[in-house]
Amino acid sequence: MDQFLLITEAGHVAHARPIGEPVFSPKSSRRTVARTAAVVLAGAACAAMMTGSAEAIVNGKDSTQRYPSMVSIPVKGVDDPTFKGVCGGSLIDSKWVLTAAHCVDPTLVTLDGTVRIGSERKNSGGTLRSVAKTVSHPGYQNGAPNRNDIALIRLNRPVAEKPIRIADRPGRPGTPTRLLGFGTIDDALDPTRWVFPNRLQELDTRRGAVSECAPGYADSTRLCTISQVPKAMACNGDSGGPQLQRDRKGRWELIGVTSGPGAPGVRCSEGPGLYTSVPAHAGWIHETTGTNG
Prior knowledge:
The chain has 293 residues and is mainly beta. The protein is 5% helix and 33% strand.
């Protein structure tokens, strides 16, 4: 499994059934934590526990502008319903949210039933809507790395917030990008030291070349992502959140979904991130949203 673990805000790891071996070999407490991947909710290269999805952005900063398309998705652990965590998402239509497939994977988590759209605060503001339906990509595979790690959530009613436009294509390697998330801001090896902010975090990054992620990780469907800030990257709790780039008119557009680390065995702040390419899955997105209304 190759995604960041979902952690409680108190810093405790939610217990869950093992879904695979960690991507590193040392027999340590980190391995034990990695195996609790039921809560794999985050996204990009934070492998503080070296195997999960990202939960928050390490060494990012408080959001500097409004992001009306940002979505917070509360989830619960499958084996422990009292466990509460979060994933990110992007509003791409008045009633559709795009996120990571592992954020709606029923073997890992259950959705809380509602999502919050357009707020810079994880627990307040914006618009609340109920989840009417989830659709994961048929080719989704949880692994190292995740494959086709993308899913859609249909809301019970449309919202007034402005959706984010899906880019026609990701920029070339070196293109400036930005990550958003509510994940941990500290990738300490001890999960009890992790800190999850209520305020939305952002981080300036760039598209990386395939060779800047571990062999077999990045390709035309998975974007290697490199921080432009030292010791920084998405981490536990950022799964499903957006990677943005500017279009020719300077407007934000969506290119990626936080999926997992871009290399095995490194802490979030020390490695690249891996993002599911949204343009590469645009055909499936349009077909699914059209078919399911």
